[in-house]
Amino acid sequence: MDSRKAFTLIELLVVIAIIALLMAILAPVLHRARMQAQRVSCASNIRQMGTGINLYTQDFDGVIPPMNEVRKRQTEGHYTRWFKSGDATWWNVGFVFKAGILKDGRVFYCPSPDVRFKYKNYSEPVFPSSSPLVSNPGTRMSYMYNPICVSLENRDRKFKKLSQLSAGETLLLVDSVLDGSVAHMGGWNILVGDFSARLVYDPQMLEIITKHGGPMGKVDYEHFDQVMNLMLTQ
After folding, report:
1. Which tens digit of pLDDT belongs to each residue from 189-208?
2. Are the C-beta atoms of residues 112 and 183 closer than 8 Å to each other?
3. CB-count exposure of residue 224 (10 Å: 0-12, 13-18, 19+)
4. Above pLDDT 90, what percent of the chain?
5. Which of 2, 36, 128, 139 has the fewest other C-beta atoms within 10 Å?
6. For the segment 81-115, what is each residue's pLDDT rounded down to a tens digit?
7. Of 121, 116, 119, which Cα lies nearest the Cα of 209?
8. Which of these, 134, 124, 138, 133, lies nearest to 84 by C-alpha position?
9. What is the rounded distance in angstroms from the CA atom of residue 215 to the CA atom of residue 119?
10. Which pLDDT score is estimated for 46?
11. pLDDT at site 96
């Protein structure tokens, strides 16, 4: 005769309740671990791009990658474009890829699911809007490159040579803030002028980006520059 005792309904419900409780406890822990892994992977991306930019300057007389290869001045807000398919031109960090220094295009894309755009086409994603238009497509990355400009009125890129870069004044790469994008639960990875990377948090930045970073008709350079300068102080 089989002496094994079957579980009663109450015992089964207790087991289910315990499992549910454990899942409720573990889920936030697992989520934080996943977010941490994504932040680390993102930081690795910008460090690899930073190494590539540094190597690029050695082959191009100390000049960092320009905004593009067709305009004499590095104006406007095309911080995230790395290739423009409309006229087959390279942009920003795309020059490092063109030179064969960076060989894996996946480093151009933050693994965070909160980034508002990944492998999409945009004609001009300037703060605060990154509205997609297919009439003038370009290949975008998840990071903004060399976004510090001369002034609010002069949108020429302020830093163009390796000798001009400094940790306190230069943002080489930063998780995009376009379209109100917040990559890492209130924070952004940045790469500064000495090629060091760090994660920055600031409630004031978050407020500006979420308040002024949604799709709008005009370019909001004032708030964009304010956010970039705040990032350098973190």
Report:
1. 999 999 999 999 888 888 88
2. yes
3. buried
4. 23
5. 2
6. 887 776 778 889 999 999 999 888 888 888 875 55
7. 116
8. 138
9. 19
10. 94
11. 93
